[in-house]
Amino acid sequence: MLKQLTSPFKYERLKINNQAGIEAKKDRKKVNLSTLKRLWVYLSEKRMLLCLVLLMVVLSSGLGLLGPYLIGHTIDHFIVTKEINGLFLLLVSLTVVFAFHSLSLFLQNYWMISVSQFTVNRMRSDLFRQFHQLPIAFFDKRQHGELMSRVTNDIENVSSTLNSSFIQVISSVLTLIGTVTVMVILSPLLTLVTMIIIPLMVIGMKWITKRTGKLFKQQQQNLGELNGYIEEIISGQKMIKAYSQEEKVISQFVGKSNQLKLSGFWAQTISGFIPKVMNMLNNISFAIVAAIGGLLALNGLVTIGIIVIFAEYARQFTRPLNDLANQFNTLLSAIAGAERVFDILDEEKEINEFEANGVVPSLQGEVEFSNVSFSYDDGDDKQTIENVSFHASPGETIALVGPTGAGKTTLINLISRFYDANQGEIFIDRLPIGQLNRDELRKQMAFVLQDTFLFHGTVLENIRYGRLDATDEEVIEAAKLANAHFFIQKLPNQYKTIISYDGNGISHGQKQLLAIARAMLANPTILILDEATSSIDTITELRIQDALARLMKGRTTFVIAHRLNTIKKADQILVLKEGKIIEKGTHEELLQLKGFYSEMQHKN
Ligand SMILES: Nc1ncnc2c1ncn2[C@@H]1O[C@H](COP(=O)(O)OP(=O)(O)OP(=O)(O)O)[C@@H](O)[C@H]1O
């Protein structure tokens, strides 16, 4: 049976297909590069600001180099020669250098945050828009919370990395180049000494980053899975309580949470080694420069000022290396996040080129199926709908009956183009359905389902969902026609009463009446009804029946019927079994056949 419009197909959720991930891993380097290129497409929209950021990074890196140089210069030229004026000059110039250094740091941060917030806002919006352009089949295969995690966590990851890492990486590279250049000019010999430690650093960094990259990806994946699970559990709270499954759910949660804890622990611990190891190597480098520099000074090969400059540069030299190693991890984690976002953006949209040009004339409501077959899974040998043919004239009521799993909902899904047929052709008003613009087609359809989805908002807004440009008067008129007006008036704030998420606080029958009002307002040519199976009190039931009769008048209606009364009134009954139409006709015709249908009626 159709469940509800926004998530009508909550059938057993399929496991995420890991195959794509495995394939993608094979081509990891290529993928990373293309991910960076795609990120650049977003970033480049703010290229002016980025240029300013770069300018500030160059300035701050240069000023960072100038500080130690000024101190060394002062030692050699003013302290050794005891010129007190020189010391004053040093004080003034250092103050100016540090002030501009801080200013440039502040500005680069400020502008970079603007760029990154703009970028992730764009990505977030693109991702959200993409969700609305993906076919229903896409959502069948994924946990909803896992998808939410992409909009929240993954995007947040990209944001925080752009905020800090982008600047750090460029400033580190610039500082490295600047430091080495000045060092070589001052003393090539002492430069060599300072560099002794570098191979050790590179090996250490490589060892650590190789491990952390994988761990961060794992952490991200575990977080997505946990979010998916939480979303599912919150949605299914009632069912969990009804079946006393709390303990099982908690233990499953603990299992997933522990997995996240473990991957998070190792990712953080191993990446946490980086600064410690670098710091140690830094101090060793400092000691080597001091010792060998001292020896060289004793032999008159370098001055004390140069040793001071080198000692400071040795520190400056390892810091950017250290930063680069740190940022590498953050970058990897952000790239993993961006990749997960782009994966979704790359999914094939529901609307294709051909269809965009498709037209939907004002429909009459003629529907024809010609040898239609369909299966949810392409690789499935067994078809869910098999070789189905029928014709519905405008204004006719077609009742779909058959045992559970017969394919009634699937047939409806095909008429609404939630899925496309694998074989055969569906015609609406004699036009192949594929040539009709999907959105426009759905605008001429309305759905009254067993469990109508109500959004958080007023009663008025919920009915207006049927046609957004309807006036308040039109909404009230629709509610009256749907027999919903009487109960709405009794609500605390009548049409302005806020309905909580998914209509909690509104009875099942009232929900149905609101759904009918919504459909009434939409004024569709084709109507899809899924008759409620749950028992509703007799008076409400009568009101529903009365409203439905009014709604169905003059519209082609497909109804998944459970009540004999509805079935009897139908112009055609399609009896479905295992995806095939096994009998077709009116109630009387089918009874005379004395086949499956008449047997079904006798059993009831
Ligand atoms: N989204 C889906 N993905 C995979 N299989 C699906 C999906 N939806 C339905 N099916 C399968 O297709 C078959 C037909 O289901 P369908 O919902 O159309 O039957 P139905 O006649 O409406 O049943 P019911 O009266 O119980 O609602 C079933 O075997 C079902 O498990």
TrEMBL record:
The chain crosses the membrane at residues 48-72, 84-107, 192-209, 286-311. Residues 367-603 form the ABC transporter domain. It is found in: Cell membrane. Keywords: ATP-binding, Membrane, Nucleotide-binding, Transmembrane, Transmembrane helix. Gene3D superfamilies: ABC transporter type 1, transmembrane domain (1.20.1560.10), P-loop containing nucleotide triphosphate hydrolases (3.40.50.300). Residues 52-333 form the ABC transmembrane type-1 domain. This is ATP-binding cassette subfamily B protein. It comes from Metabacillus niabensis.
